[in-house]
Design goal:
238 residues; globular; 10 helices; alpha/beta
Length: 238
């Protein structure tokens, strides 16, 4: 049996590859539990500075494998109460989604939990929760509207229609669209840039950006200034 998720490290960047290509990388219990394990491994390894998540084959991830949804535990795959948004949210390393093909429903949610996305020209995106009759639970209704705006999120989730990589770029869902055979090359270049910066400040900036997700703009301004004063006192003695 093939490993449902592949893991490698190149130049301080972890590459996590969803690896059920015969099932379009659809989500089963083994894939989820292995993905969680690798994400925690990344979080605990001080030598890793960035993470790339991609898919093997023609799809990034086609969502939950409907053949096993009633027989496998997708809500607590490791028996430790860990859930996908918690696992991704706990990772302080920048997570780049390299979207090589279809990102559908639960697979789309995996992408949305990344820090930002780079798409192959062959990528496409769809929220089909309402079509297949599955309630969203990994952030679709909240993260999609943050990415593309409430009106466009409503259109995507209400119609369950796909959007292309180019439309995703125009709507602000993905940062770049690149030639399919250049996707990993480009994403590795971005990861190398991330690895080259001051990691302490990078971690602080990521934390500050994430802070506003649960706070008002006023509170976020105040929090940044508070952290800055702490930085000055620690490093400049003022």
């Amino acid at each position: 049996m093939e490993t449902p998720v592949l893991y490698s490290v190149e130049n301080q960047t972890a590459i996590i590859t969803l690896n059920r290509p015969e099932r379009r990388n659809s989500i089963n219990q083994a894939l989820l539990s292995t993905l969680y394990d690798y994400m925690e491994k990344v979080s605990q390894d001080d030598n890793i500075r960035a993470v790339i998540i991609t898919g093997n084959g023609k799809s990034f991830c086609s969502g939950i494998d409907l053949d096993i949804i009633l027989t496998e535990n997708l809500f607590d795959p490791r028996g430790d109460k860990s859930d996908l948004p918690d696992i991704f949210g706990a990772c302080q390393k920048p997570i780049i989604g390299a979207i090589n093909g279809h990102a559908i429903t639960g697979g789309f949610e995996i992408a949305l939990n990344c820090d930002f996305l780079v798409a192959s020209e062959k990528a496409s995106f769809a929220d089909t929760h309402a079509k297949v009759g599955i309630h969203p639970g990994w952030g679709m209704t909240q993260l999609l509207q943050r990415a593309v705006g409430r009106l466009r999120a409503r259109q995507m989730s209400f119609t369950c229609k796909f959007i292309s990589a180019q439309t995703a770029y125009e709507w602000g869902l993905v940062n770049e669209v690149v030639a399919h055979d250049m996707l990993l090359t480009r994403v590795k270049e971005i990861a190398e840039d991330i690895c080259a910066v001051n990691q302490d400040i990078l971690g602080a900036v990521k934390k500050l950006i994430d802070y506003q997700e649960t706070s008002s703009l006023k509170d976020s301004y105040a929090y940044e200034r508070e952290q800055f004063r702490g930085f000055v006192k620690k490093h400049l003695g003022k």
